[in-house]
């Protein structure tokens, strides 16, 4: 069992952690025609926007209740009301994600009451969904905010599609897939394709693959153009199973179970041969379990995935030379840390150091003796002598100081292209990771080889 | 400095800022004191503005006293460059937790300062208050004072809670911190007859480095840069300059006017963008000192530089001649870039006046002529409408509008904080010309605008398909 060290320093140096509101906004951006609304001062929104714009290189719809000194003293009720009405008029979203910040949480705005008053005052907006979530900056991190937003999204009542209306997805079995914050738009896209390959219809919650993947639309939009649609949210009750990808999605899965009786399975990671194997096996069982026992059908894993599996096995063979015995230092959010640390360990690498942002039960099960909840200063101390460092773009200068190569993961990555589509899960994504990292390690080995290569 | 309402009002109604006059030059225009509109407000807060103004002091540590959102989401995101120390690039924060908020954050702040000084030994520490620490009433001044006495390092409180106002107000709050705690605390090693301060130039993308050699050549000494690539000590001795040269609008006008009052240093407002403006800047400074030798030397430099520039720009002038630009940016750049573009033979068909002063607007009017459009408001939709209406060839704006343009398949050039290449000075103009030309003439535009073969087929056969459908 891994020991969790929480030094709780007075001074955080080069923070790894980003704030809950930013994470919640990211989750909200995975809903279609969405406008996330920060209840706080302007800067909270502006900073989050800059981070997301630089990371994804996309325009990012975010808005603010623009709290001032006066409204901070008197309470933000009017600001919330005015903001919602202005957004509805100006941007015509189909859904608003309302999140709090350090400022409004500290002053103690009662969001339930504020929203209730708003509802009473505006009966004409009865059916308009406002999903509200509490995300104070002074607790947790991006992953926690993201997780809290997903929980609010699945807990909200959007009204159901009437039972007699046939499902829009045909007669295929439907599953709900809860996607944690370690999944990029490219990861979500890959997952969706894999699941559809089994003849199953997935509802991805949230679905970043169509909102932050980077694509051109015919005209200009001020809200998200893709993501989980309201119609899909209304049909969550029809899913036969919830697949929670990432340990942090467990509670959201239990919410769905309580609401609709939907059973769930948690997959803490989806990279690495074993992890992907068991995920695909689970998918193959969904159809099988619906068959008559007397006439069982053979679990049918699509041919292209079977082929990818053989490719991955070959990639593992080819790349393992460069991973074996290498010391890797990681500073990532818990879910991503878990997935990456285990994949590296399975390749023969040693995790020299692990730093993360926030508490999570998954941290107890890492392939290293202790994990530090800390910042990049901690990483810099722990990573001395590492062969590779894996963290976000803020790690650039520390990697230089430690003379170790950096592989960028997490948020924010502002000095690299293509993050909207980068996929690091499934067989395909695992191969991509092994090639990327393998090439870095290979190059390092060549650099430090005592015999000059000719 | 305690943050009182009257102090903030003072900053918002600086007499030197024409924002505060109506068209007749008297009375008050409300634009600075207007509060942000919930739901439609965009842009940064006062904390954001204060850090923009102060973080470029490179050998100082910048410690954010607040929860993680303020520092965690913002550190390491500005392109202000340093020629030496890198302390300013580190993210320092007290990262307040719920407990700190309940029991107060002063002790944690004091400990954080102590650790910071011990481990990183900065020239000074700027401590920024944020919404939350202002709200729980942490006494920033007292903690900073106590720590200054104990550790013999200047520790400067910056009262910048986000909720007091906009980024612009934040710039001025940063300036106030410098006025109250930094400027005048140290004497320069030596002075010259031609000492100036540059105020409001942050060395984004190294822009200042394109201009400093010109001053040096002319024999004008830049005593303090406030604050691009500055060292803490030079700002301390800024009070011995003979002239303040304000760059980039009126963001730090409170510094210029207070230094005039306290140290009798006059100020002028100049721009480094475009040949005309760069020439004027050098000439105005020389004129101010009134030294004939200096004036002549400046004329020589101008002649030499413009001759070099004409050769360097010739190919670009040819390519850019008559190209139409929509400009959307704030303050001084709303007219200085116009003049830079016109130097290149381009036509500016519209520009923003949202953050411009009355004086700025006058200049814009003169530069644009009667057909030029002045944009008071600039929603993305409005910008696209204007681009379409004017048949503009490109949009030049800040990073926030980058995707407005790109998604609409319009060539774009980033003119603000986040850009990576310097446009200031004579050298900068060549860079800007090169990038404008790259933007307009990139081979990608035909590709991204091109419909797919099947869409073309569909269009061509539309009538045929319609007929068929009717026939059925």
Automatic annotation (TrEMBL), chain A:
Keywords: Nitrogen fixation. One of its GO terms (molecular function) is nitrogenase activity. InterPro entries: ChlB/BchB/BchZ (IPR050152), Nase/OxRdtase_comp1 (IPR000510), Nase_comp1_CS (IPR000318), Nase_Mo-Fe_CF (IPR005975). GO terms for biological process: protein-containing complex assembly. Residues 19-441 form the Nitrogenase/oxidoreductase component domain. Coiled coil: none annotated. The keyword Protein biosynthesis does not apply. Gene3D superfamilies: 6.10.250.1090, Nitrogenase molybdenum iron protein domain. It holds the Pfam family Oxidored_nitro. Pathway: Cofactor biosynthesis; Fe-Mo cofactor biosynthesis. The keyword Isomerase does not apply. Belongs to the NifD/NifK/NifE/NifN family. This protein may play a role in the biosynthesis of the prosthetic group of nitrogenase (FeMo cofactor). This is Nitrogenase iron-molybdenum cofactor biosynthesis protein NifN.
UniProtKB/TrEMBL annotation, chain B:
Pfam families: Oxidored_nitro. Pathway: Cofactor biosynthesis; Fe-Mo cofactor biosynthesis. It comes from the Bacteria. Residues 45-440 form the Nitrogenase/oxidoreductase component domain. Residues 18-27 have a biased composition (Basic and acidic residues). Belongs to the NifD/NifK/NifE/NifN family. This is Nitrogenase iron-molybdenum cofactor biosynthesis protein NifE. It comes from Crocosphaera subtropica (strain ATCC 51142 / BH68) (Cyanothece sp. (strain ATCC 51142)).
């Amino acid at each position: 069992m891994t020991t969790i060290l929480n030094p709780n320093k007075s001074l955080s140096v080069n923070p790894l952690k980003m704030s809950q509101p930013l994470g919640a906004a990211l989750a909200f951006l995975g809903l279609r025609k969405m406008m996330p609304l920060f209840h706080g001062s302007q800067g909270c929104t502006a900073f989050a926007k800059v981070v997301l714009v630089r990371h994804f290189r996309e325009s990012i719809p975010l808005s603010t209740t623009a709290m001032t000194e006066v409204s901070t003293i008197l309470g933000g009720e009017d600001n919330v009301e005015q903001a919602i009405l202005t957004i509805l008029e100006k941007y015509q979203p189909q859904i608003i994600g309302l999140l709090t910040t350090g400022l409004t949480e500290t002053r103690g705005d009662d969001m339930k009451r504020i929203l209730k008053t708003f509802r009473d005052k505006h009966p004409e907006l009865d059916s308009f969904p406002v999903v509200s979530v509490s995300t104070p900056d002074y607790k947790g991190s991006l992953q926690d905010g993201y997780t809290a937003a997903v929980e609010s999204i699945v807990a909200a009542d959007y009204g159901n599609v009437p039972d007699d209306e046939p499902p829009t997805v045909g007669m295929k079995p439907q599953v709900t897939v809860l996607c944690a914050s370690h999944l990029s738009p490219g990861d979500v896209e890959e997952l969706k394709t894999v699941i559809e390959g089994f003849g199953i219809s997935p509802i991805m919650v949230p679905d970043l693959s169509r909102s932050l993947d980077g694509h051109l639309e015919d005209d200009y939009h001020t809200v998200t153009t893709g993501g989980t649609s309201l119609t899909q949210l209304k049909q969550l009750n029809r899913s036969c199973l919830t697949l929670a990808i990432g340990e942090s999605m467990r509670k959201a899965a239990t919410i769905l179970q309580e609401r609709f009786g939907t059973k769930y399975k948690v997959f803490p990671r989806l990279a690495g041969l074993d992890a992907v194997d068991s995920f695909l096996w689970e998918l193959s069982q969904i159809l099988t379990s619906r068959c008559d026992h007397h006439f069982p059908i053979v679990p049918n894993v699509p041919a292209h995935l079977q082929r990818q599996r053989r490719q991955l096995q070959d990639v593992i063979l080819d790349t393992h030379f460069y991973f074996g015995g290498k010391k890797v230092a990681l500073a990532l959010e818990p879910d991503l840390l878990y997935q990456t640390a285990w994949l590296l360990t399975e390749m023969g690498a040693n995790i020299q150091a692990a730093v993360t942002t926030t508490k999570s039960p998954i941290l107890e099960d890492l392939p290293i003796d202790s994990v530090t909840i800390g910042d990049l200063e901690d990483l810099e101390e722990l990573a001395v002598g590492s062969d590779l460092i894996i963290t976000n773009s803020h790690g650039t200068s520390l990697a230089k100081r430690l003379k170790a190569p950096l592989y960028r993961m997490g948020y924010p990555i502002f000095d690299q292209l293509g993050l909207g589509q980068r996929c690091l899960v499934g067989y395909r994504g695992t191969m991509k990771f092994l090639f990327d990292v393998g090439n870095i390690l290979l190059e390092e080995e060549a650099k430090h080889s005592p015999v000059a290569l000719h | 400095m305690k943050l009182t309402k009257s102090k903030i009002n003072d900053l918002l109604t600086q007499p030197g800022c024409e924002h505060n006059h109506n068209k007749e030059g008297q009375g008050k225009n409300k634009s600075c004191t207007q509060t942000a509109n919930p739901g439609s407000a965009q842009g940064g807060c006062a904390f954001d503005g204060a850090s923009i103004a102060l973080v470029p002091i490179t050998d100082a540590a910048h410690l954010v006293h607040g929860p993680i959102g303020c520092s965690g989401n913002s550190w390491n995101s500005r392109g202000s460059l340093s020629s030496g120390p890198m302390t300013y690039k580190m993210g320092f924060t007290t990262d307040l937790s719920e407990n700190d908020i309940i029991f107060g954050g002063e002790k944690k702040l004091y400990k954080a300062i102590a650790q910071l000084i011990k481990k990183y030994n900065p020239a000074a520490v700027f401590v920024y208050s944020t919404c939350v620490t202002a709200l729980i009433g942490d006494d920033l001044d007292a903690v900073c004072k106590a720590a200054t006495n104990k550790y013999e390092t200047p520790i400067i409180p910056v009262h910048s809670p986000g909720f007091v106002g906009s980024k612009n107000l934040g710039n001025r709050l940063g300036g106030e911190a410098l006025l109250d705690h930094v400027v005048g605390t140290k004497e320069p090693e030596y002075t010259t007859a031609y000492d100036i301060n540059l105020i409001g130039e942050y060395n984004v993308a190294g822009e200042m480095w394109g201009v400093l050699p010109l001053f040096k050549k002319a024999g004008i000494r830049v005593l303090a840069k406030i604050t691009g690539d500055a060292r803490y000590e030079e700002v301390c001795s800024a009070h011995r300059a003979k002239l303040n040269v304000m760059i980039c609008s009126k963001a730090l006008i409170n510094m210029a006017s207070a230094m005039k009052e306290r140290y009798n240093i006059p100020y002028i407002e100049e721009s480094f963008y475009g040949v005309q403006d760069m020439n004027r800047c050098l000439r105005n400074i020389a004129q101010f000192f009134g030294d004939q030798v200096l004036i002549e030397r400046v004329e020589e430099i101008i002649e030499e530089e413009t001759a070099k520039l004409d050769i360097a720009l010739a190919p670009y002038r040819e390519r850019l001649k008559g190209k139409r630009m929509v400009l959307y940016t704030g303050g001084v750049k709303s007219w200085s870039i116009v003049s830079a573009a016109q130097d290149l033979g381009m036509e500016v068909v519209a520009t923003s006046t949202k953050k411009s002063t009355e004086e700025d607007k006058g200049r814009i009017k003169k530069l644009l002529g009667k057909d030029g459009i002045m944009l008071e408001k600039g929603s993305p939709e409005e910008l696209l409408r204007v681009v379409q209406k004017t048949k503009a060839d490109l949009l030049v704006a800040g990073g926030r509008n980058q995707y407005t343009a790109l998604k609409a398949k319009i060539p774009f050039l980033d003119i603000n904080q986040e850009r990576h290449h310097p446009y200031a000075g004579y050298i900068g103009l060549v860079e800007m010309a090169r990038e404008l030309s790259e933007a307009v003439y990139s081979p990608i535009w035909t590709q991204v605008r091109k419909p797919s073969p099947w869409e073309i087929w569909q269009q061509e056969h539309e009538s045929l398909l319609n007929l068929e459908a009717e026939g059925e």
